[in-house]
């Protein structure tokens, strides 16, 4: 009899294959007294070196298969294994307590994991997963345990695991691993992000997959609706094979739109752009027919390394992206570090609430050497394509004016040095703070464009951390308060003859697209893999019709009302 397990849809598609359980080895650790602490420290450092060697290989594999930003996870793991903050307490414990290396490492790592997991911050919780991953690798060498190696899988399977570490996921072979299901995790966990990069269906957060699925069971992964089906009946299997065929046929239909413009059925053009993190991501942007890049997150250049990137390194990265886009617009967001993205080498003070703290433009205006280096690199690269620059986390007009003044100062300096710089670079800002949305009419007089960052705008407007499960019900993209803010930003831009885009998750959401089209949004920037689906949807919509429902939607009381109305009106399941 078919068994259904509900989880979170993390990567779309339908996969059908036998279950392959990725077992976690038994890391039972005993405390042992040792007579020679120096020799034990040597044994510990030798295990660390072996783990580093393995991680170097995994990083190389990830770089080839998944690109620089995914490989950066393993650069970060290598940094953890070189971090005196972790290594010194282990050595001190071995020396002072005369205990075995396994025990000293496990105790120290457990303390760090508990500390990170207690923080109400998704990024810091992910760091706990990183420490667990690298610690297990070192412990395996100390204990003489073989770690399961997903890269050795040589038949078509669906991987079932409590969780997949970044190193597990990076080693999955697309040829054989058709999908995976995990007990824990969410849409933003490493494993979910990797699954989307590998384009294999995944369901995470099932709570019970490992308890209910045995090796060799026939399993269906439904990455569209977040279901796992165990040992399906003939009838259920047939239904899912049909569903898979429909999805593949739909993808093939979408693929035909790759070279088309995004035009509504009544002839209005909107721009569908992609969000990227590294130059390697441009391949996916072009393959999916994006009309531009609406958000280039430059912080990946700064992460997974031990010092700041040089002006030359940055120049090369920006130049590469601009050249590959061949004149299509590329909107680059200046450094957005802080909040959930830390740079250990900056040694910034710990904050009670980093999301509302010293981050993004606030950090750049204070650490101007770093900011000016980035701006010089961008300005030098501007002659190689169609560059637009935007500043993140702007709360006041004064912040925007200061940032723009610094940019213009660097431009003048380069011109005095006879370095070529593009003349008409558009300078815009992210609208992600409610204060900026409310004052959009004033900002619109001074910016060239707005890009609405809904991920933060929603959590700041609703005063609800989107990573906190207890208040996740308040993360409401369709709340009329959010829609009114978005509307006022678009209206303010248009009144001054400027354009308004959106680069938050909402821009690629099937339910949001008809609303945003009706509100007059000019540019929708999303994951590259969402572009063709969104283009197919826009082509079936009439801009005039969507606009005619604008007042009705904005006057509704609740998010639930908005969702029900949009589903019914635009026939969305």
Give the amount of beta strand, in percent. 5-15%
Terminal Cα separation, in Å? 28 Å
CATH class of the largest domain: Alpha Beta
Rg estimate, integer Å? 25 Å
* Main sheet attributes: strand count, strand direction, barrel closure: 8 strands, mixed
Number of helices: 23
Fourth CATH level, the homologous superfamily of the largest domain: Phosphoenolpyruvate-binding domains
Spatial ordering of strands, largest sheet: 1-8-7-3-4-5-6-2
Indicate the CATH topology of the largest domain. TIM Barrel
Class computed from helices, strands and strand pairing: alpha/beta
Helix content: 40-55%
> What is the overall silhouette?
globular
Low-confidence stretches: none
Number of domains: 3
Label the CATH architecture of the largest domain.
Alpha-Beta Barrel
| Average pLDDT reading | 90
The count of DSSP E runs of length 2 or more, i.e. the number of strands, is: 16
Would you kindly provide a brief summary of this structure?
The chain has 573 residues and is α/β, with parallel strands linked by helices. The chain folds into three domains: 127 residues, Glucose Oxidase, domain 1 (3-Layer(bba) Sandwich); 107 residues, PtsI, HPr-binding domain (Enzyme I, Chain A, domain 2, Orthogonal Bundle); 315 residues, Phosphoenolpyruvate-binding domains (TIM Barrel, Alpha-Beta Barrel), CATH 3.20.20. It is built from 23 helices and 16 strands.
